[in-house]
Amino acid sequence: MNFDFDYQGKRASISLPITAQLRTQFANSPKSFSYTGALPSNWKQDYFKMFLKHDADKMPLATLRDEIAAHCGASSGDVWVAAVIDFVQSGLEYDHATAFNIAGSKIRYPSETLLDGMGVCMDKTILLAALLQDAGYGLGIFNFDRANHMSLGLLVPDGYGNFGTSYAMVESTAPTPIGQIPARYAGGIRLDTRPELVIIGNGHLRFNAIVAQKAAEKEAEKQYGKDYLAMPAAKQAIYRDMQELKLEMDQAKVALKGCKGRLDPQTYARCQGLNASYNQLVERYNALVAQFNQK
Fold this sequence. Notes:
With about 300 residues, the protein is an alpha+beta fold. The chain is about 45% helix and about 15% strand.
């Protein structure tokens, strides 16, 4: 199977040697939490971990980890983690048709999500956790009960976590910077302000790259505005080009102010050239706007 995903603002591709036959190995695998006696206090932790240890997932996930490493040039560390997140966010579609899988206890195992090429928030979050679980990072799952939503929690340096925790929210359903909380979720639903955090990993590594990321985001917000931060990387690249062209257009407008009234032949010829250059800038800008709106 082939997967196309956004990596550092460019489109990348990964091919995995998995077929539909793999699906049969999950046919009789549990999808709901079972217990005897009183419900354990940590049942959610055990329930989520159940999806992270299926033997049939080991080979596909190991291959995928290696393929992502080949693209980013690292097999561990923050650079690799960021690339894994890029893959899950942009390489698999959001499954709108079954957006309420969580309530129906129909969570996919990681390889099932890969085979389907899509998943709801829980499916993609579980896949992300499965890919990162052996990397040594602290992991958790943010559970937004009211919004029927879940996302990964990634251990970060003090002061960079979300919701008063030491974990940054990693939205898996669409390209979103680590630690950024969407104002609203699919369907206009607003996320809970105090989600439950379920710890699913014993790692102690922190995603330190978020420090530089947040500093860069602060500078970008000053230059391009707050909406810029919510854009996918591909749209950000186009938007930056649009702003550069807009600056050139503004400068050209200033130069054209001297082209009014009666002009001598030499000035007239120069103004004709300025006007032609300005029109070219406008055409390029309009083309970028159309490209931006298609993303």
